[in-house]
Amino acid sequence: MKKNSFFDYFAEIFCKKDHNLFMIGSASRDFLLEREINDYDFVTDAFPEESVEILKDFKLDLSFIKYGVVKVKYENKTFEFVSMRYESDYSDSRHPQKIIFVRDIYTDAKRRDFTINCIYINKDYKIIDPYNGVKDLNNKIIRTIGDPYIRINEDPLRILRAERFKKEYGFAYEINLEKVILQNQDLIKKLNPEKVKSELKKMEKFI
């Protein structure tokens, strides 16, 4: 299997501090599809304050540190490091009421949206795939983790994300997800208009 030099570089930095780093989301998805990685999404078992310490020699963006997100600028690219976490119920159709940082992949996996976004690749390029995301990736299926009605109502922005993935990759919705999306379009009106605008802008180049 081919490797990615940026991931190798940062995974080694975390490893030296006794923490693990994984490709996740679009990074692992595009890596497995042998596409260029444009969004470097990583997840780590380091807690946010530990990630800050590990990455202290880089230019950091801590705007979303309360969600466990640390962003780094390196060689004209942005890298996002997210601490594994457990999320409670969503109270505002966008954000969980409570976040607890954890060091367990399987706990972190439960809070993710789609199976194709829940494929973990470790520093040895071993795949950890709790919800058969690789199978859905190969079959070109967009499927939620768990009940699609619950996942979409937790965060209606997932409707737009699913549509973007559908257009970008030429994938199809799993039949129950398709029904839920068609029946819940009005939920998008509950979202912050700027969030909607941002997601639509990402989608533009695939239309």
Features:
207 residues; alpha+beta; two-stranded antiparallel sheet; 18% strand; globular
Description:
There is one protein chain. The protein is α+β, with helices and mostly antiparallel strands. Helices cover 39% and strands 18% of the residues. A 5-stranded mixed β-sheet has the order 1-2-5-4-3. Strands 6-7 form a two-stranded antiparallel ribbon. It has a two-stranded antiparallel ribbon with strand order 8-9. Helix 7 packs parallel to helix 9 (193-204). The radius of gyration is 17 Å and the shape is globular. The chain starts with a helix and ends with a helix. The mean pLDDT is 93.
Through-space gap between termini: 32 Å
Number of alpha- plus pi-helical segments:
9
N-to-C series of helices and strands: HEHEHEEEEEHEEHEHHEHH
Biggest sheet: strand arrangement: 1-2-5-4-3
| Helix proportion | 25-40%
Average pLDDT works out at 93
The radius of gyration over CA amounts to 17 Å
Low-confidence stretches: none
Show the helix and strand layout.
Elements: H1 5-16, E1 21-23, H2 25-32, E2 40-44, H3 48-54, E3 59-61, E4 69-74, E5 77-83, E6 85-87, E7 99-101, H4 105-109, E8 120-121, E9 127-128, H5 133-139, E10 141-142, H6 148-154, H7 157-169, E11 172-173, H8 175-183, H9 193-204
Parallel strand pairs: 2-5, 10-11
Antiparallel strand pairs: 1-2, 3-4, 4-5, 6-7, 8-9
Helix pairs in contact: 7-9
Task: Put the structure in a nutshell.
The protein is of the alpha+beta class and 207 residues long. The protein has nine helices and eleven strands. It has helices spanning 5-16, 25-32, 48-54, 105-109, 133-139, 148-154, 157-169, 175-183, 193-204, and strands at residues 21-23, 40-44, 59-61, 69-74, 77-83, 85-87, 99-101, 120-121, 127-128, 141-142, 172-173.
